[in-house]
Sequence to fold (390 residues):
Amino acid sequence: MISFEPTPEQDALRQRIESFVMEQIVPYEKDPRNTSHGPTEELRIELNALAREAGLFAPHVPQEWGGLGLDHVSMAIAFEVSGLSPLGPIAMHCAAPDEGNMNLLDKVATEAQKQRWLKPFAAGEFRSCFSMTEPWGAGADPSELKTKARYDGEDFVVSGVKWLITGAQGAGFTIIFCDVEAEGDKPGGPTMLISDMDADGINLTRQIETLDRSFTGGHWEVTFDHLRIPAENVLGEVGEGFRYVQVRLAPARLTHCMRWLGGAVRAQGIALDYARKREAFGKPIGRHGEIGAMLAENEMELQQSRLMIWWACALLDKGEHGRHESSMVKTAVSEALFRVADRCVQVLGGMGVTGDTVVEQIFRETRAFRIYDGPSEVHKWAISRRIMKG
Fold:
C-alpha cells in the first residue's frame, strides 16, 4: 500500500529546504546576475556554496558521489520545496539538465567515465548539457536523428546540428545522441557519446530567445563539425541509445513535475496573500465568488499533482514504475500547473503581468514545461496507443 503521509524525517527535510530557499535563495531572484538567459556561472557557484553550507547540496546524488542519496519519494518532497524559487534547484544542484545527466551517468557509465565526469560533476565543479533535440530532426520523436557519427579508426567523427540545448554555454561536457553508421562488423544505430565541450568541432552557433529563463547557460544551437570522439567515450553500447534515452527521460519527467509544483505553490501563496489584502467593491477580492473559485481550483490541482507525483515515485522506489506512468504524470501535472499559474496571474490582475512578483516568470516557465521532455500531445498519443492494445 502506498502511503501519502511523509515520515518525520521527510517532513524535517522539507522544512529545512523551505527555510533555506525562502530565506537565503529568494533574495537572489532580483540579482543582476539572474539574467534573461538564466543565472550566470558566477551566481550558480555562489548559490551552490550556500547549499553546501546548509547540507542540502545534490539531494538526489548517491552518497558515494557526495550527495544525500534520497529515495524517489523523498526526492519529490525535497525537489518541490527547492522549486519555491526558480533558483532553488540551481543552488541545490538538482536542476535540469544536470540532474537527469547525473542519473544517466550513474546508471550507464563505466567506472572510468564516472571518475572522469560524474565525480567532479556531482561535486558541482562544472555543469553539463544533453544534446538530443534537432531543428528538423530528433525531438519529441527521437528516432528522427539527423546528427550522424561515422567510424574513423578507433574514433567516431560526429557531424550535425542540435538546438534548444539547455546549458550549453559554460558546460563542462555534453552527452550527444546521434546515429552511428555501421561499418563492416562494427555496429551502428542510435548511440550516446560523451565529449568535453571545449573539444575542437563543437561550435555554439546561436543563443536562442525563449519564454523561460531559469536554466544556467540558457538555450543554444550547437553545431558538431567533424567532432572526434574516442571509442572509450561511448556511453553504454553502440546502438542502444533509445534504451538509454528512457533511462534518462522517464525519471526526468517526474523531477520536472516536482520542481515546477514548488513554483506553482509559490505562485498560489502570492495570489492568496494578494486576494486577502486587495479590496474591491467593499471587500477583499478573495471574498468575491469568481476569485475564490479560482483559488480553490488551484488548491485542488496542486494537491492532485502532488499525489500523482508521489504515486509514481512510490512505484519507482518499488521497481514497478515505467515510462507510461511518467508520461501520464508529466502530461497531467504540466497542464494542471500551467492552469494554476494562469489563474494566479489573473487573480493578481495588472500586477500579474509585471515583474513585481515571481508569478509572471512562473507562468512563463510552466508554459514551456508543457513542451519540453515531450509535448502533452505526444504523451497522450503514446498513452492512447498503449491502452488501445487492450
